[in-house]
Amino acid sequence: MNITLTPELEQFVQTQIDSGKYASATEVLLAGVALLKEIDRVYKGRFEELRQKVLDGVDAADRGDVIDSETVFENLQAKLEQKRYQGQ
Fold first, then answer.
1. Which domain of life is it from (predicted)?
2. Among residues 6, 9, 39, 3, which one has the least CA distance to residue 17?
3. What's the rounded Cα separation, in Å, for the pair 62 and 64?
4. Where do the structural domains in the chain lie, given as residue ranges?
5. How far apart are CA 69 and CA 67, in angstroms?
């Protein structure tokens, strides 16, 4: 596989090598790919968590287990005030 980098990315790779963090351009690119892979894994996990929470919310709404918006905002305001109080 041949990879062509922009001049800016080439300079970045060279800077990483010059700093001593990496011994070669291949090491820099492998580190970048590993990081991208980890970000993708975390993103997928977080997406699944959010998806499940949405499904749980839909199920709760279908059961009629909901809270009116005024109560929700009052509870959020109380939590915010509690956090502010704890921070002092």
1. Bacteria
2. 9
3. 5
4. 7-87
5. 6
